[in-house]
């Protein structure tokens, strides 16, 4: 590997213009997904082309060069399908049409072709657990008061109580309140999310046939795979039994529930794997699956099922070295048992951004930068959420009147909801909308983001953007291979892979270590023993600053 091409905080390195994206011919086509870096584009908040304040496909296409320059392998796009937007597009009314808010099918085709020309794969969302209540199927179901075939595509049930006035069971919506809504004719339908998102009945053959057709539609257009929303949720336990526990959303990811992580979902994913394998170019399936353990999560990525599954245990891990090491070990062991890569992620459009989760302010950003280097040093595939490469924090002071997350309207208070991580990202300029588009932005951006824009950070060797660019350049040059833990003081994680050592100091104090190797990259400037310049140690030791991570050539 060529260390001279890497850039580090405190060391000179190539600018983005000097380190262009490798041509698509240099991207391996075999098993590309095993170590891919995939960038999540939340379409409505990425780039706006027409000035309506909402991001769209044309805007995203125009910004693809930024992603190619960043050094990623693939782009994942959140839903852009026809939708009433009751839940940011995750309530789909037509799976084969682009919502006019985001453009049209020609724009989708242009984005896929443009991405491929830049050497980028394209993954799109598919939402199989539920439709919109405006989907033609659900309209037909509401009209079918005799309980015929139209209602069998969803979960309609009679209520409990003398007059059927109580929900059929005690299931709760992830967004708060009961998971059932009563129709005018007295029946109840299931919605694990918003009432505008009725759950499909995957025991119905028509549902299977429809989604096979939907997947083929987009594969024929040229997409390289699908991120499967609520991949753990399509199958419900027989009889829809009560849970007998309140605050059920808190149980997600900690235990198997009668509506999540049922064994029956795996046959669906096997059938989709067969469909994906019937297309050339290694099209992939990525599970958004909340499972109670790494071993349960690994079931989604067995050789005949999906290719990747998000590692939410890693995302939820606190800033604690023992907890981090345990999650990494358990995750690698579980996926190795089925021959799959581990898929690492720190943020997405549904959780508080990790600089804020790690404490916010300067300390939170230091930890976020360090966590990014740790994640990118691990074997497997990684996901980057848009704006993460800019060090964007969660926006925690959005006025109630601008909030759009349906969960906000079904519970009290501001904290923990999703609008704060979905604020449109800053591209350039000194005032909002910071180059997001020619108009305003659908959620207001903080004035302080002028210092965090792509324009402001480009070329600054100390910026988070240049840290990511340098890390991704170096990651591409490394040979890859297994990792092993190295001895380290309390509060420090040290691991090695072929050609590299990664050291993470999670403590609030500087720690001195035996010199691991030649310094390559650091989340903050390193200050070694003696009078030598940062990141140029000449002795046998190096001082690792608090809340920092460094890579060393070996």
Automatic annotation (TrEMBL):
Short name of any one Pfam family annotated for the protein: Alpha-amylase
Residues covered by the Glycosyl hydrolase family 13 catalytic domain: 40-418
InterPro entries for the chain: GH, GH13_cat_dom, O16G_dom_2
Any GO BP annotation: oligosaccharide catabolic process
Region annotation Disordered: where it falls in the sequence: 1-27
MF terms (GO), sorted A to Z: alpha-amylase activity
SMART domains named in the record: Aamy
UniProt similarity note: Belongs to the glycosyl hydrolase 13 family.
Name this polypeptide is given: Alpha-glucosidase
Natural source organism: Streptomyces lunaelactis
């Amino acid at each position: 590997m060529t260390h001279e091409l890497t850039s580090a905080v405190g060391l000179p390195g190539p600018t983005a213009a000097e380190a262009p994206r490798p041509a698509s011919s240099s991207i391996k086509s075999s098993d590309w997904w095993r170590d891919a870096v995939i960038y999540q584009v939340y379409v409505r908040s990425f780039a706006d082309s027409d000035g309506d304040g909402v991001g769209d496909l044309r805007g995203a296409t125009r910004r693809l060069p930024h992603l190619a320059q960043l050094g990623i392998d693939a782009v994942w796009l959140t839903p852009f399908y026809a939708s009433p937007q009751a839940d940011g597009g995750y309530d789909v009314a037509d799976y084969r049409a682009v919502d006019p808010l985001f453009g049209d099918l020609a724009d989708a085709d242009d984005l896929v072709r443009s991405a491929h020309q830049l050497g980028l794969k394209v993954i799109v969302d598919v939402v199989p657990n539920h439709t919109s209540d405006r989907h033609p199927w659900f309209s037909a179901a509401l009209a079918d008061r005799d309980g015929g075939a139209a209602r069998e595509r969803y979960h309609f049930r009679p209520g409990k109580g003398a007059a059927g006035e109580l929900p059929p069971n005690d299931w709760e919506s992830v967004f708060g309140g009961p998971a059932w809504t009563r129709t005018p004719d007295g029946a109840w339908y299931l919605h694990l999310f918003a009432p505008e998102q009725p759950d499909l009945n995957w025991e119905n053959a028509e549902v299977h046939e429809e989604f096979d057709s939907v997947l083929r539609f987009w594969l024929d257009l040229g997409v390289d795979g699908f991120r499967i929303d609520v991949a753990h949720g399509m199958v419900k336990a027989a009889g829809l039994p009560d849970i007998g526990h309140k605050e059920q959303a808190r149980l997600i990811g900690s235990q198997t529930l009668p509506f999540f992580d049922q064994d029956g979902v795996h046959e669906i994913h096997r059938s989709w794997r067969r469909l994906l394998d019937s297309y050339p170019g290694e099209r992939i399936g990525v599970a958004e699956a909340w499972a109670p353990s790494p071993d349960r999560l690994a079931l989604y990525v067995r050789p005949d099922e999906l290719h990747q599954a998000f590692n939410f245990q890693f995302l939820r891990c606190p800033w604690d070295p023992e907890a981090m090491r345990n999650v990494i070990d358990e995750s690698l062991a579980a996926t190795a048992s089925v021959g799959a890569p581990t898929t690492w992620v720190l943020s997405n459009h549904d959780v508080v951004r990790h600089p804020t989760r790690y404490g916010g302010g300067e300390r939170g950003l230091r930890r976020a930068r360090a966590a990014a280097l740790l994640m990118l040093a691990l074997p497997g595939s990684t996901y980057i959420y848009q704006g993460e490469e800019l060090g964007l924090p969660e926006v925690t002071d959005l006025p109630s009147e601008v909030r759009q997350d349906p969960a906000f309207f079904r519970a009290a208070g501001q904290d923990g909801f999703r609008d704060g991580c979905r604020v449109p990202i800053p591209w350039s300029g000194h005032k909002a909308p910071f180059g997001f588009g020619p108009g305003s932005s659908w959620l207001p951006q903080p004035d302080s983001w002028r210092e965090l824009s792509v324009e402001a950070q480009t070329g600054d060797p100390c910026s988070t953007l240049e840290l990511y660019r340098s890390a991704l350049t170096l990651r591409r040059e490394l040979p890859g291979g297994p990792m092993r833990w190295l001895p380290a003081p309390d509060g420090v994680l040290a691991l090695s892979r072929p050609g590299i050592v990664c050291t993470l100091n999670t403590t609030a104090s500087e720690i001195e270590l035996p010199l691991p190797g030649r310094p390559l990259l650091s989340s903050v400037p390193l200050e070694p023993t003696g009078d030598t310049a940062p990141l140029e140690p000449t002795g046998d030791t190096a001082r690792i600053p608090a809340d920092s991570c460094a890579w060393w050539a070996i």
